[in-house]
Design a protein that fits this description.
The chain has 8 helices and 9 strands. It is α+β, with helices and mostly antiparallel strands. The chain has 2 domains: 42 residues, Winged helix-like DNA-binding domain superfamily/Winged helix DNA-binding domain (Arc Repressor Mutant, subunit A), CATH 1.10.10; 170 residues, Beta-Lactamase. The strands form 2 sheets. It has a 6-stranded antiparallel sheet, with helices on both faces. A 3-stranded antiparallel sheet has the order 1-3-2. The longest helix has 21 residues. The two termini are 32 Å apart.
Length: 236
C-alpha cells in the first residue's frame, strides 16, 4: 500500500514488485486480497488505492490521544508565528506526521500532510527523536540507514551527526537548515509525557527567506517549547 503516492497513484503489478522487492506472484495475491477487502481498485492492468484506506488512518488517529490532543496547540503556534506547525513520531527509521496545523503554508515541493513520512536524520523532528534513543538503538539505526544527501547541506557523516545529536540532547531542540530541501528551515523540540518519556516531536517549518536560524531560536523556540510542554502534560 505504501508503494502508492501522490506521484504514483496508479501502479501495475510489475511496478509494485520492483518498488517492494516482492515477487510478482505474491504482489498479485496481496492485491487480490486488498481488492476483496475494498482497499484497492483495478483499472485494466493498473491498481490504485480506494477511499476506504482512509478508514485505517482514521482508526489510528481517533484512538491516539497524542494526535487528538495536539491539534489546538499546533493551530495556536501556527497562528502566532504565521508558519506551519507539525507533530511527528519515529516509525521504521522515518518520521511519521500525525498532526499538522490547520492553516499551513506549503514549504516543500512535496505537500506534507498527516501520514507523510520523511527521513529522520535530516529533519528537525527526526533528529530530536533520534537524540532520544539509547546508544545501542542509535547504533542499530546507523547500521540500517544510508545517509544520502538531499542537498549540498545534508549531513551524511555518522560521526558528525552523532555529535549533532549529542548537542540536541544538551540543548533540547534541533534546527535543520536546508538539509532536506533548499529554502527550507525548521526547528523542533521534544514532546515529553508526564513520565518523562519523549513520545513525539513538534516543529515549525518556514521558508529560509522568511526566518533565519537566529530568528527561529529567539522568536519560535519559546512558543514551541511552551506548546510542547502543555501538550505533554495531557499525555499519560
Amino acid at each position: 500500500m505504501r508503494s502508492f503516492s501522490q506521484q504514483h497513484r496508479k501502479l501495475s503489478i510489475a511496478q509494485i514488485s520492483r518498488q517492494t522487492g516482492i515477487p510478482r506472484a505474491a504482489v498479485r495475491r496481496c492485491l487480490h486480497t486488498l481488492g476483496q477487502l475494498g482497499y484497492v481498485t483495478a483499472d485494466a492492468r493498473d491498481f490504485s488505492l480506494s477511499p476506504k484506506v482512509l478508514t485505517l488512518g482514521h482508526a489510528y488517529l481517533s484512538s491516539t490521544p497524542l494526535s487528538a490532543s495536539a491539534q489546538p496547540f499546533l493551530d495556536r503556534v501556527a497562528n502566532a508565528v504565521h508558519e506551519s506547525c507539525s507533530v511527528a513520531i519515529l516509525e521504521d527509521d522515518e518520521i511519521l506526521y500525525i498532526g499538522r496545523s490547520a492553516a499551513t503554508t506549503r514549504i516543500m515541493s512535496v505537500d506534507l500532510s498527516v501520514g507523510s513520512r520523511l527521513p529522520a536524520y535530516c529533519t528537525s523532528m527526526g533528529r530530536v527523536l533520534l537524540a532520544s534513543l539509547s546508544q545501542s538503538e542509535l547504533a542499530a539505526y546507523f547500521g540500517r540507514v544510508r545517509l544520502r544527501p538531499f542537498t549540498q547541506h545534508t549531513l551524511t557523516s555518522r560521526d558528525k551527526l552523532a555529535r549533532v545529536l549529542e548537542s540536541i540532547r544538551h540543548n533540547g531542540y534541533s534546527i535543520v537548515d536546508q538539509e532536506l530541501e533548499i529554502g527550507l528551515r525548521s526547528i523542533a523540540v521534544p514532546v515529553t509525557d508526564i513520565s518523562g518519556k519523549i513520545v513525539a516531536a513538534m516543529n515549525i517549518g518556514a521558508q529560509a527567506t522568511r526566518a533565519t536560524s537566529r530568528q527561529m531560536e529567539q522568536q519560535f523556540l519559546p512558543r514551541l517549547r511552551a506548546a510542547a510542554r502543555e501538550l505533554g502534560a495531557l499525555l499519560a
